[in-house]
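If your schedule permits, I should be very grateful for your opinion on a structural question. What I wish to show you is a protein chain and, alongside it, a tokenised description of its three-dimensional fold. Would you kindly read the sequence against the tokens and tell me how you understand this chain to fold? Here, with my thanks, is the record as I have it:

===
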Amino acid sequence: MDIGRAITYVFQDSQWIKKVAIGGLLVLIPIVGWLIVTGYWLRMTRQVIQGEDLPLPEWNDFGGDLVRGLKLFVVALVWSIPGAVLTILTTASGNGNDLGASNLGLQCLNTIVSLAIAFVQPLYTTRVAVTEDIGAGLQFGAIFNEVRPVTTSLLVILLMSIVIAFVAVLGLILCIVGVIFTAFLSSLMSAHLYGQVRRQLQGEPLTPMV
């Protein structure tokens, strides 16, 4: 994994300030803005998979990005069902402030399931990025079969996602300017890492990228 490239590539685009500012402003718009940003993020991921991380995509396909974002939302929603069910069961088990063994067991299981889904997220996400097809992100057997060849890379991304989330939180603490820049920048870092994993699965070199 080329973590350094994932962190720095954005700043090598001559128009990165404009593109990041647009993405940051869209992040501030609930639902529609988030979906558009997600669609743009998928385009960025696909670009990395194709071996070209620069320049960053132009903001010239808002409608298409909205549709792409909606597709990934549906896929992510399906993948989140096990965790949601466990959360409901944990809440029901904990009614009456009874934190018994069964409730603690459900909480632990919920944590494990959530981490497992986060672990494979780069796999189903990049499938949607490449194909723009909801079904591709729900081919559970094929996705689980992809885990072994890239286990180390997926672990790196899982750890990096924690770091990136922390950076985003720092942006929130810095108020509006932080939201505009760090939240969107963090997502672009993740896009690059996700793209690298898919390239690795395809047997293509991770570097150099231009």
Remarks:
- The mean pLDDT is 86.
- DSSP finds nine helices and no strands in the chain.
